[in-house]
Amino acid sequence: MLKYFIYCRKSSEEEERQILSIEAQLQELRDYAKQNSLFVIKEYFESRTAKEPGRPVFNQMLSEIEKGNASGILAWNPDRLARNSVDGGRVISLVDTCKITSLKFPTFWFEATPQGKFMLSVAFGQAKYYTDNLRENILRGIRQKLRRGELPAKAPLGYFNEPRLRIIEPDKQTFSKTKKVLELFAEGNHTLTQIRDKMFSLGLVGKNGEPLHLSTIQWMLKNPFYYGMFIYRGELMQGSHKPMISKKLFDKIQKAIIDNGKPRKKLIKKDLVFKNFAICGKCGYKVTGETHTKKSGLVFSYYRCTKKSKVVECSEGFLREEKLAEQVQNICQKVSIPDEWKDRYLERVSEWENEQNDSSGIFAQNLKEKLTKTKERINRLIDLHLDGEIELDEFKQKKNILVEQKADLEQKLNDFERKGNHWLELLKSWILDANQAGNLANTKNFFGMKNFLKTVGSNRILLDGKLKIEFEKEYNLLWNVPAEARVTGEGEAFNSWRNTIWWT
């Protein structure tokens, strides 16, 4: 009696949704075998595409046939057996060598005759043609979506795939919540675990209502889709969807991710205000703080180099906290603006606000010219790639850099056009901050003074018991104010310095 194998296949790919499920195929084939008195000895089934050779279950079945364990195959349609020339050729070869003497399909007639084998070859060829044509149509559709700036994939959290227009739109339920989470992480004060908990409390969850995996959250934080771009096959592309955040905020998030990965610093005790505030000027290692209690019960704090260098034998000594605090206070006082100066400068800024500033137009024009040139460079790069003068990897690398530059310029131009004379607001803020520094010094708020100096200066060095700081330009100008100008606020020295502040 002729022995048959049943073979069922269902692709997991979208284009084969219309094909019967494996369970449905099995039931149909079992009924067909019963109606036609076919002796089935084994059933094979797998969920794999047949576009390419290499299906393990299919290969196992053909190996059993080659061994002579069966000589017939029962399948729903020839395209279940093969959609590529290699697998189709194997089946026909087994028919030619009489190792397969019978092929049964409920939807296709076959007999092992020259005509039958020819029609089977045509059926396999049609299946391959359908696959190739479908693939080309899909790729054509993807290319068209990319030209329109549309991501041909599932929408990220905060968006949804609009089924009618087949575009990605903001999701009313999750858009604002996701934006809030991104803004929160950009502050740099939250771990991924804390963000996950926050998202869970907002209802931003995974399948079955479970909290999102940390890896999913990290991917979300790195996704350029949220500022209007997207990556497709390693290439950064301009999207046409509504951005959730600005490029500036996205960059802050990336910095926060890097900082988040660094080892967490231990909480500083309240009585050690300046711990890890400076580095040693002799060996470059951190300056730490220690608190000691004498037998008398007197508590005192001091600061010293951690002396972790294995190359430099550090000779930096100890510095009492009150001595360091005095220096910090004097530095804050020296980079501050007195109340009298503050009022005078704010008055001058108000005058500028009422004047026409031609330079704003020049600045905007320069940004527009840079943006135009960047777009032209992108187009030239695309032409070079299409002409085969530049390899794909090099093309992607250079294009991604230019696209990021383009996004930065667009962000700057947008900020400038939106804020106008924003530099005047920054100047006001600087005047008020510098004035506040003096107030901090007068109130002996050392925590406030430390945080202020960390904001306006870098490279804080303790050398031979002296604190040295590299200030930002505007505060460096204050640092260099002549003593006589600071005392009187009048005269030649003051006027010379004032001109430096305003016009440098």
What do these coordinates show?
There is one protein chain. With 504 residues, the chain is α/β, with parallel strands linked by helices. The chain folds into 4 domains: 3-141, Resolvase, N-terminal catalytic domain (Rossmann fold); 159-260, Hect, E3 ligase catalytic domain fold (Alpha-Beta Complex), CATH 3.90.1750; 279-339 and 427-503, no CATH class; 358-420. Helices cover 52% and strands 14% of the residues. It has helices at 22-35, 56-66, 78-81, 85-96, 114-147, 175-186, 192-201, 214-222, 247-260, 321-334, 339-353, 359-386, 392-419, 422-443, 446-456, 473-479, 483-488, 491-503, and strands at residues 3-9, 39-46, 72-75, 102-104, 159-162, 167-170, 229-232, 235-238, 279-280, 287-293, 299-305, 319-320, 457-463, 466-471. The strands form 5 sheets. Strands 2-1-3-4 form a 4-stranded parallel beta sheet, sandwiched between helices. It has a 3-stranded mixed beta sheet with strand order 9-13-14. It has a 3-stranded antiparallel beta sheet with strand order 10-11-12. The model is unreliable at 266-270 (pLDDT under 50).
